[in-house]
Specification:
Order of helices and strands: HEEEEEEEHHEEEEEEHEEE
Strand order of the largest sheet: 8-9-16-15-11-10
Radius of gyration: 20 Å
Helix content: 10-25%
Distance between the termini: 29 Å
Number of helices: 4
Shape: globular
Strand content: over 45%
Length: 260
């Protein structure tokens, strides 16, 4: 039954035991000679129960739930443009089907804009409507009144949700607000001003490597061409504010190995 659910949406799945994973289950997208497939690894030390909650064959999506004891984790597995993907659903969202899972992955700001724009339900799954445009895990909400000085515009800026991810490149980008941090290979997540000065004082190696300043949690706006090797290029004629989906809010996100 488990394999058949994936076959209904045109996917293959393989389940393996592994003692090398740090969570009860991990989900990855792998490739062999036949193409991409879902790889689920689970620890033999955990009594894992996997349940398919909902399958939408025409949409090529399904909702998977893993349970270990009283702990439940839910994952949306599906196909987006060119590749299969898996996304962890925030535990705070009471979802039981694919449609609810898709809605749960939308940031609050996106759902609010959908309501204000009176987007019909059948159009809310589109990658572009009056309320937003989407490319992968990134949502873009139009801000036509935004005025930006040419001196503040950055060109060919990456949008990355993690160091392991492949960047989405924005032709034009404007960042404002947020907290100043210092970033280097020694501190890829960034250090505050105080922590940066302390690192330079305590570690002689720190002064010999390149550092750059970035903004943590800034407001980000983009326009022009938004490109990514796994997605069709998106063209935004006016400024749009950038929002990431809610996947990072899920504890289950640690179980997702494949990163876009």
């Amino acid at each position: 039954m488990f394999d058949k659910a994936f076959l209904k949406m045109g996917a293959r799945v393989r389940i393996e035991e592994s003692e090398r994973i740090s969570s009860p289950v991990t989900i990855d997208i792998q490739r062999d000679r036949r193409g991409e497939f879902f790889l689920l690894k689970h620890s033999p030390k955990s009594a894992l129960d996997l349940t398919i909650l909902n399958v939408r064959p025409k949409d090529r999506h399904l909702l998977l739930m893993s349970r270990v004891g009283d702990e439940k984790q839910k994952f949306l597995c599906g196909h987006d443009e060119r590749h299969w993907f898996v996304a962890a659903i925030p535990e705070s969202a009471p979802v039981s089907n694919v449609a609810q899972a898709k809605a749960a992955l939308k940031p609050t700001e996106v759902r609010q804009r959908e309501e204000r724009s009176a987007i019909p339900g059948k159009h809310r799954d589109r990658r572009r409507n009056r309320a937003f445009a989407r490319q992968g895990e990134w949502f873009f909400i139009p801000e036509p009144a935004l005025q930006v000085s040419e001196l503040m515009i950055l060109k060919d800026e990456p949008l990355v949700r993690s160091r392991m991810g492949k960047p989405h490149l924005a032709e034009y980008c404007y960042r404002t607000g947020g907290k100043l941090v210092y970033v280097s290979p020694m501190a890829p997540e960034g250090l505050s001003e105080e922590a940066y000065r302390k690192r330079l004082h305590d570690d002689p190696r720190a002064s010999r490597i390149p550092w750059r300043t970035m903004r943590r949690n800034p407001r980000v706006y983009v326009r022009g061409r938004i490109s990514h090797p796994d997605h069709a290029t998106l063209v935004l004629a006016e400024w749009h504010r950038v929002y990431m989906n809610t996947e990072t809010q899920a504890k289950a996100n640690v179980a997702v190995v494949f990163l876009d």
